[in-house]
Amino acid sequence: MRRGFQWDLARQVERHDWLLQQLPRYADWGYQELYLHLEDAAEFPSLPGVARRDAYSYRQLATLVRTADRVGIKVVPIVNLLGHTQYLIKVPGLRDLNELRHPDGSPQATGQICPLHPRTLETAEKLLRDMAPFCTAGKVHVGLDESFHLGRHLLSRREIERIGLAAHFAGHVNRLHALTTGLGLRMGMWGDMLYFLPDAIPQLPSDVTIYEWYYYGFRRRPRVELFNFAESRLGEELRARGFAVWGCPMNGSARYEPLPHFTDRLDNILSWWRRNARLGNEGLLVTSWEPFRLAIELTTVVDAAAASLWLDPGITEPRAMLERGFARVFGKGTAKRSARVAHACDRHPFGGYPRWQINERWDTVSRREPQRAYLTEEKLCARLVQETRGLPAPLRASVEYRWYLAVRDVFVRMAARSRGGLADPKLKPVLNRYEQALRIGRRAVREMWTLTRDRRVHGTNTRILAADTVRLAKWKQGGAVFGPPWQFCYAVLNHRPCLQQVAVEQQRPDGSWRQLQACHTIEFQNQAAQPNGTFLREHAAPVSWDGDWLNPPKLRLILRGVGEVRIRTPELRRGKTILPAMPRSFTLGQPAPQAGLPELDWTRIADRRLLRWQPNKKAAG
User: Fold this and answer.
1) Scanning 27, 183, 387, 590, which has its CA 20 to 30 A from the CA of 102?
2) Is residue 555 located within the same domain as residue 505?
3) How far apart are CA 577 and CA 209, in angstroms?
């Protein structure tokens, strides 16, 4: 089984010298191939407008590839050529490649490239030719994942009407295959679009390598998120047809998590290792995505822990693998303690969009949600901070940042409920602790960033804490950072996990609707990646209302995306005064599809419910 690792350098660039230092280590750990996800983080001489300001130069890429080759690691560049092609569409001269058009036919500002645009193949050839010298593994990966805008362009619609969506997709694959073959390269592609377009499989070139990805632990087969986590037999079908297949787990965090969920990540890697062995797959690729919100050395630890599968074949318990991962990256002296702290962090992950909303606004924190779990979490994180003394800097700083997030959760929830505000004596010690955590948090996120990145650049976490600092100052000056007195509270039971967004809207006097709050339901945890979900999350939206019981606000809940959710206990609240909405429980959305390409359009309302208030009854409180 071939062994590969991936660096996602498209979302942020790591220091070139740091990358070079890692290559001999990965070679020692037994990795054989490096996949570079670049987008506009690389210089393309044939398309000079693509590379962003901090992109790697062509010379830097050449040095990286030569260094990898010298230690025995072959390189596979990833050149996205369907989905995730905003790096091309952003360029004014390439904007017309966009699949998405305005009603007048002009290209929109965002989207993905159209497979049939007259300039698509010309552009693809330039990108591939520029990357060809770096394809030392004899392969190039062309992406093609998550291409949900497929078929929107007039040219695409016409072809789809004639030959069908699967053949339309397969046609694009075949044209790219001709380009890569002409350059003497084998083509690779992600496999997820084949979940939705299985009829394309017989139409694909037989020598294309398929990289099937799924980022949760599983027993026998990966699942399809957009099919309500139904099991997939894609791997079996591809192997039966003779395709080379790689299984692809993931090593890092999801979105705003400050550090990986180490147990889930290693469960995911173990699941693919075992499935690869059962199916006789060609390789294991440990992917990495969006590491700019954490210290990348911690995803490196996961890669090093995964190496136990071939370096220590008898070690398959995640915590034992994690200890060996820390030992390989930071030395044996602190490995056991580091693994214990990292494993403890998994008990309270800062995960899920309902948790992450606080990064952008404080007026959506539910004032009715019990605080006990947040207090417990803050105590655990405070203890872990003490335990990181003497441990590697990336882990220590990450745990300090996690503690900051826990302290912020407690402070914001208590301050939002306090009627006395800054004058509330019960709030004073909580405020002092938060201000202390804010100072430590600023230093921690800066350290997490500068360990491997340009000191002149400020990362996402730094910007989050800067916004928190502004909100705190505004609150201390009497500003309404927690919104108006009335708040609409409701719980979302993600009982049929898929990919949904729930939003609250209030009707204006002119009859139009204004969005008050919106939140995705996906959780990115093993326990949530099942057809029957148990995650119940509190949500809240600030509501402008004068409290006139005869004229309650006109609110509605809407659902976007694919699938259904259960809404529970919707109500308007002001302190202990409650105006319940009826019914107290209902479903939004429709069951997720089991086949076909789902229509994933975040501008379209999939379902809505106008709220009715409990009649002929005074509000409680």
Assistant:
1) 590
2) yes
3) 61
